[in-house]
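Support reply, case 0932

Customer input (verbatim):
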Amino acid sequence: MSALPQLPLLGRCALVTGASRGLGRRFARVLAQAGADVAVTSRTAESLRDVVAEIGALGRRAVPVVLDVRDPASITRAVDEAAAGLGRIDILVNNAGCNIRKPALEVSWDDWNTILDTNLRGIFFVAQAAARGMVSRGYGRIINIGSVTCVAGYAGLGPYGASRGGVKQLTMSLAADWGPQGVTVNCLAPGWFKTAQNAVMYENAEWVGYLSDRIPLRRPGADGDLDGPLVFLASDASAYVTGQTLLVDGGISVNDTRALPKKS
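Our regenerated output:
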């Protein structure tokens, strides 16, 4: 059995959306560590300075690109700029997203549109724009970032869960569309990881304990837990994997609960 290369993405060119902070920033750095040159996007150029510096320090090329995934003209321009700056796009990590956490009775029309336009419509049209070049070259890896809400429901996350469930279904359809042209499309679905959007929740030790009690591995996601799955889906190791949703959630989606103590 052959060993995986030390730099499995050496010579590849990647585009990571929503890369100025959080998981997107880490995804960009991990791809660079695996050998890829990386174009990174955010809605402002200023917010990309740090991640561009980090990628450069790893000896890889970094191309900063301004992108608003709710604007079709911005999508076309950003993908074109990324492809021109890198030479091509082999890998797309479709990460840009947002959330507005509210009880269902308080969700407004604008709340719904903001979430779905970003998390579902944006993912589709960024994938479409990047796939044009991939299809013409006969090679591509598209990784749509989903969530455990692809397969589970949580109070206060109605529109968000609908958008992520849509990403799961969209991934399967795009895999069927572009598979014959050598482009794989998969969904990487994290469980509960601390990000800027939910950091305040992790300040509550009681809530973290409650959450951990529902996860078979008994802890939330930690730095590094997504690195291997990301590189796998971006590399030739996953050449025969497409249309799949890879849940990296510590098992919370199996709905495990600890057994009640036996009565004495």
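We compared this against your earlier run and they match. Two observations from our side: Strands lie at 13-16, 37-42, 62-66, 91-94, 140-145, 183-190, 245-248. The chain has one domain: 13-190+226-245. Please reopen the case if you see a mismatch on your end.
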